[in-house]
Amino acid sequence: MRIRTVVALTGALTLSLVSGCAQGGAAGSGAGSVTYWLWDANQLPAYQACAQGFERENPGLDVKITQMGWADYWTKLTASFIAGTQPDVFTDHIQKFGQFADLDVLEPLDDLGIDDSAYQAGLGANWIGQDGHRYGAPKDWDTVALFYNKKLTEAAGLTADRLNSLSWNPKGGGTFEKAIAHLTVDRDGRRGDEPGFDKNHVKVYGLATGGAGDSDGQTTWSPFTASAGWNYTDKARWGDSYAYDSKTFQSVIDWYFGLAKKGYLAPYTDYTDGANPANAQVASGRAATAFDGAWMISTYYGTKGLDVGTAVTPTGPSGKRATMMNGLADSVTKNARNKEGAKKWVKYLASDECQKTVGGYGIVFPATPDGTAAAVAAYRKKGIDVSAFTEPVTDKRHARTFSFPVTDYAADVYALMRPAMQDVFANGAPVSGLTKTNDQINFILGQ
Amino acid sequence: MAAVTAPPTRTSPVSVRPLRRRPSVGRVAAWVVMAAIVLVTLLPFYWILRTALSSNTALAAHPGDPLPVDFTTGGFERALGLQSTKEAIAQGGAAGGLKFWRYLINSVVVSTLITVCQIFCSAMAAYAFARLRWRGRDKVFGLFLAGLMVPTIFTLLPNFVLIKQLGLIDNLLGIALPTMFMTPFAVFFLRQFFMNVPREVEEAALLDGAGKVRIFFRVMLPMASTPILTLGVLTYITSWNDYFWPLMVSYSDSSRVLTVALAIFRAQTPQTGYDWSGLMAATLIAALPMLLLFGVFARRIVSTISFTGVK
Question: What biological processes does GO assign it (chain B) (predicted)?
Answer without folding.
Answer: transmembrane transport
